[in-house]
Amino acid sequence: MTLALHGGTPVRSAPWPAWPPPLDPAQRALVTEVLESGRWGATQGGSTVTDLTAAFAHRSGVPYGVAVGNATLGLFAALRGMGVGRGDEVIVPAYTFVASATAVLLAGATPVIADVDPADLHLSPEAVEAALTGRTAAIMPVHLAGSPADMDPLNAVAARHGLVVVEDTAQAHGATYKDRPVGGLGDAGVYSFQASKAMTAGEGGLIVCRDETAYEAIWSVCNLGRELGGQWYGHPSVGWNLRLTEIQAALLLPWLDRLDAEIDRREAFCAAVERELAAEWGATHGGESAGAGSGSVSVVPRPPGTTRDSRHLLMLRFHEPVDREFLLAAMAAEGVPLEGGYPPLGTMAALVREGARAEPCPAAEAAAREVVWVRQSMLMDDPRHAAHLAEALAKVLAAMPPAGADGAAPVRPGRA
Ligand SMILES: Cc1ncc(COP(=O)(O)O)c(C=O)c1O
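Above: inputs. Below: predicted complex with pyridoxal-5'-phosphate.
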């Protein structure tokens, strides 16, 4: 079959669902109400930001929330509010979005980049242990792709060494670990509402936390160093204006009512992908039966303890070398675009120039070679269309040229 890249007929010509989904009536009504009220800022007496933070805190199983302009600033504010700053080190996973590390830099601390688990790609507790120094003040597990990091062992390391735990929940709205919601598993959790996220207002973020003192300090960081209930022009601490607007909150608050239904929808698509991959290559969930060398592609497994994966992305791993540039271009031409995913943070010269320290990260390096992502908007499609993904993969892999200049063998999709 001729690849679409070479002039053949694409597997899929219809567009995938757009992101964000269309406004629903509740969003339209609340946004209109806020716009017409003239109270667009969170300091003007409106209640939408307050309602949103309360709802998110509740869903996260903690009493406190602070809404912010984005999650990068939220991570910064959480660290700073809990006393992490100059001279401190914060351990972050090597396979994450760059903001996990730049937030640490913003707080004046040093990101220490530790490896991820080779199977599930979340921060490895063993790598955290190996990266500890006398300056380590915090760890930042990232709930990657919507699945929770295995928090119990990470929290145990943190407890043993007196470390702050800031969960990066930017990608994991609605996810649960051992039936407990993310965000309430560490000392603070930080959600993102940036345009690609499961709930979005174009931009935005929200910090949740359990401890009242931490809450008051984080609130102050986000409100120019004011004291909760204190004078408007009293600034006992140094802080910034990091606030979310009422208009953004009005887009987000009604979304909480449909979040679970949207996760279910993505879950159904992901389950269908797993079935399609199993039918094509015998890969089971998590690739347990699709070991290296099987010539297959499998779904990256969720960490132990996952009880609800919010399915922000679906990560696929190839078990033999692939020419990634060719793969991504050919899949896009087939109408099934995939994302290449993250380079390991430690390979980013800009972070290293700013003082980030990278531990050896072979698992993140392997992920950068072997893993690609299916985007959230695709996962919102009818599960029957998961067949397009499997069909396009089979077509492209069958035509894959030898990977790399070293003459590595091409992938051939051998059926199980
Ligand atoms: C894992 C992770 N952390 C942090 C961020 C930063 O979020 P924001 O864009 O809201 O600053 C993002 C996404 O953008 C992310 O995916």
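The chain has two domains: 25-256, 260-398.
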